[in-house]
Amino acid sequence: MIPLSGRALVPAALAVLLVGCGGGTTEQSAGETPARSAATAPAPAQPSAKSPRPLERSVPVGLRIPAIGVDTPVMRLGLASDGTVEVPPLTDDDRAGWYRHSPTPGQVGPSVFLGHVTVGTHGDGVFRHLARLHRGERIEARLENGTVAEFTVTAVRTVAKADFPTDDVYGDVDRPELRLITCGGPLAGEEYRDNVIAFAELSR
């Protein structure tokens, strides 16, 4: 089993983050706001002295991001037979997935969600507009115990898949955080060239 926190959260998961974001039969929407580059993206914010108290463990069942029109059920993702992290299936009712070997939202550590940018012939994926998120916008994780964990976006980065920032995404943190991951950038054959990563911290 992969540990729940720390840099070991996933060496194997990189293979999935480098591929498996939905593949591209749908081009990016005309007029879409360009994603921030890794070189210009702000670093995730430092912990505040008034950070909210971490929550008890409870599995996420829904994810809502009002600024980009996301309101999705959440499925659990584990490991595939080759040791890489599973990704949600390509279906017309595309959903986000939570990597179940990461902390649940509100626990200390990075809680990791994956979603497609496109779902082949089905069209747009659930994280299609993840790159449009801005610092300060809200993400809500609905938990199995009825709690809603509210997070605030601290940074959105677009990085080349070859330069995926493993430590920034999976490294130890001393507070509850989220990582939302999808693909982005131009298509290179059947795959997108980049990854889009949204970072968020628990706000209440």
Automatic annotation (TrEMBL):
Residues 26-58 are annotated as: Disordered. Residues 33-52 have a biased composition (Low complexity). CDD domains: Sortase_F. The keyword Repeat does not apply. PROSITE patterns: PROKAR_LIPOPROTEIN. Keywords: Hydrolase. InterPro entries: Sortase (IPR005754), Sortase_dom-sf (IPR023365), Sortase_F (IPR042001). The keyword Coiled coil does not apply. It comes from the Bacteria. Signal peptide: none annotated. This is Class F sortase.
